[in-house]
Amino acid sequence: MTVPNPFSSQDCAKPSVLAADLARWAQELVDQGRSPFRRVEAQPQLLSSQGILHPHLVFWINRESFMAGGLLLLATGSVAEVFAQGRACAQALGLSHFLTWRGQEITFWADEPSAPRAVKVLELPPEAEQRPGGLRWALQEILEALKPLAILGAVPPEQLSPYYLANLCRSPLRLTHDELEAAFRGGRVDADSASGLSVPALVSAKGGLTLARLLALMSANQVPETVQPEKLERALELALPYLAPPLAQALQPFAGELPLPHASAVRFHHLFRRLGQLRWGRDSRRAVATLEILVDQRRRRLGLPPAKQDRTLAADTLVVNPVCPQQAAGPFHEVHQDATLRALLGLLRDLRGAPAPATSSADIMHLQPRPPLSRIEGTLIAQDRPLGQGDKELFRVCLRASWPHRRPQFPARAPRWLYEAVHLLGLAAEEARIEIDLPDAWLRPGNAQPLVAILLDQFRLQTLVRIRPGCVRLDVEKTAPAAPPLEVTQGLATALVPNEVFPEEAWNAWLGAAADILSEEVIHEGAAAQTEPERRIDEEERARIIAGVFADGLPRFPETYLYEHYRPELREFTLRGPLRMHSLFLGTCELVDEAGHILEVQGEETAQALILASHGDARLVRLPCDRQVTAAIVAKYLADLQELRQKLLRETFSRREKSQTARQWAKRIWDSLPLPPWDQLPEQQP
Known about the structure:
- By secondary structure, this protein is of the alpha/beta class.
- It has 19 helices and 22 strands.
- Strands 13-12-10-14-15-17-16 form a seven-stranded mixed beta sheet. A six-stranded mixed beta sheet has the order 1-4-5-6-7-8, sandwiched between helices. The protein has a three-stranded antiparallel beta sheet with strand order 19-20-21, covered by helices on one side.
- A hairpin with a 6-residue loop joins strand 7 and strand 8.
């Protein structure tokens, strides 16, 4: 086999492609030979002291246990840059060595406190890339040289970096993502989630909360060592009351939370065993450092700004989506929009011994602190899930508590964060200071009401600054209303021209020096993108669904169901097509087919059995003369049909984000098969 030189001028600009090729060839060698390695991965994501890094190759001994035996960097940058990345990746993987490949030279480096030290150099012959299997020879030499280093170069547990522990904790989140997504999409068929979360958000919240509960309870030594995977989640639930009340509250199940599927429970149980080997929680400083890394990574993923350092919160302050524990001069409050960040932050606060909030809520709209707040600060996350009519009605009820003398009128497509922003403003006391980051979409035409009306009426502007594309920081002070509340019916575009309801002068005077922000081009990253319609289920996917749901074949009624009864007396009926009930009088039923032929039978049980059988392939049907036997086989057949329909729904729900689309495709697949029509079967209650 002839392979290109990975450092030729043509290929040097494509390190990701080269890394994938080298990983594939190295994996073939691992599969064929004897080595401690089981997997070679190209460019995995690692949290490190240098930020998020993607080493070109990682040689894994056990990927699920996050046990690596070596890493390789394709050295195309400066020596200092390569050394910094190599040391950071080695610490993140729990290694004391790393490899660099530059030109024709492969160097093994020992990570020492002063500087990396070269311990071995492999020279690649200049003509190697021209020989069949030339680079295979180099990869084989790397694997052989890494064998002793994989054992001798492992870092002792007590010296492992917090970045290694953070990456280990994130490992099951990555491994279980697809499993949870498929299970939770299918789970929507059997249980109506009350969380209001999309499936990706539900997966993220479930995985993050499970991780936080496991870390918290292991730190408190409250997880039985003998617990089995199928009992792990139940053991965590039973142990939560033994934690400090503020931490236990942050780890409580959220509305609509679904149980872990077995495969995901096994992966978290594997993490439990691995953390036990590493004596998680024994070193509180390392545990705190690990939690700080996990919290910061979650903050970045949510797009939240870093916390202001070296400051003390004023008493009666509400912090919206806090990102680190803070000192406070008195009782303070918190509200979160992300369950994972809330749980990790609660654990970090507990390990640090930092003061807990007086109240902590996971729902802004249900927040009702008493007394009113003297300060509100933080960031509102723009959640793109559309609001249903039930949510809107509930939010209007919540707004009656925060704004008892107003009835804000929201646009039909108002996002959730607009309701939340209005509600937060209503929780502030007189002369309270509000400094909050908002999506800038409220400055757009059609989105100004009712937020602009409330701001004009009861707040004095301090500053209005665009802190990043799509986000503005609103700093206002609440004042007593100078006039009766304005009932705004126009959008901002209409309001910027003089009119009696919403005068331009009032808006410009309120904005003051910050008025120029309206002339900037609005780049709204937080708004929901126009989602593409979900693709249609093609014939190949349809065939896989049918093969999975009807693995035992289509049920044959009534033949198969007569096996459970010993030689019942039968009567024959000839069918010409699907039947429907035409009339019923004193136990005599008239059935009619599509051609208008009428079939007269005795007993509703027999009529129902014939209607069900008429949708199959058979044209000659034998039914019991005994009506009780007929009723029994009909009941069993209907139960089997309902079970098959639920399996079909779980399959389509696991493959489609939108519930309505998934149900439509399940119905189309069902109605294309020789089975009783979907609409004629009673719905099975979850």
